[in-house]
Task: structure prediction
Amino acid sequence: MASTTDTAPPGPAAPGAPAPPVPDDPATLKVVPARHHARWVAAAAVAVLVAQFTHGLATNPVWEWHVFRDYVLSETIVRAVWVTLQLTAYATVLGFLLGTVLAFMRLSRSPVLQTVAWTYIWIFRSIPMIVQLVFWFNLSALYDRLGLGIPFGPVFWSVDSNSIIGTIGAAVIGLTLHQAAYAAEIVRGGVLAVDEGQLQAAAALGIPRLRQIRRIVLPQAMRAILPTAGNEIIGLLKGTSVVYVMSIGELFYQVQVIYGRNGRVIPLLLVATAWYVVLTSLLSVAQYYVERRYARGADRTPPPTPLQRVRRFVRTLRTAAAQRHRPVVPFKPLGDIR
Result:
């Protein structure tokens, strides 16, 4: 005899009754967000350190912010910044022009050109920049006159080396020759990044070699050249401070002269730091837009620029504000419209 306590097999649910929950149904699972406790602790520690540093900047009297305000836009400092920009511009343009020539010399099939370019790069990357600057500054001790004539023959025209190469000229020569060694490797790496099939296709079409380099190779190589070249230019901007050994009135030298007179070392160094930060930031912004321009061939829909993001955010705020102040029109069924 069957027991009266036996459970009857489940049958179909009664009409209108809720369906029983299905085990492991995603709709019945409780979603709990992940808790990153270590991340929050690290963020809090970093925020405390930043707050302490900011508080020290604002309250420590050693910074002497009033001295910083007096000198940061003074005429002497602004002129020194202009000299720094001139040295950077001259060395960048001339260094990358010479570096491009050296790069293609290394890529040529001539063993003489390859050897000369490799030797130049090896020597100028081995000698510190300050040694090169001092050497070019004392060039007149080695060659008192510079002239033109037949090699190993008579000289038709000569001039005193001090009159043709001054202090600024020696600094530009030293910075240019030093920069060209690094620029050559940057350009060579970018050219090697271009697919060899591009040159083969251009040669099959009968395009001259020089036009291949100018219209096909270099535009594609720029995507690989620009990030490293931008970093090198920023390093050159800061490296111009080395020319203080030649008593050139660039930014760091003028800061040294001023704090040598008044003894305000910390605020004057802060003046130089602020200007270097501003200049490197401007170069970084320019590098971003130049890289974006040369990336058009690889990315037809580049991401929006920071300015475009700001404009889009402002438009979104205006649209939300306009919708918030728009009057609400009561809904009327179709049958009520007369």
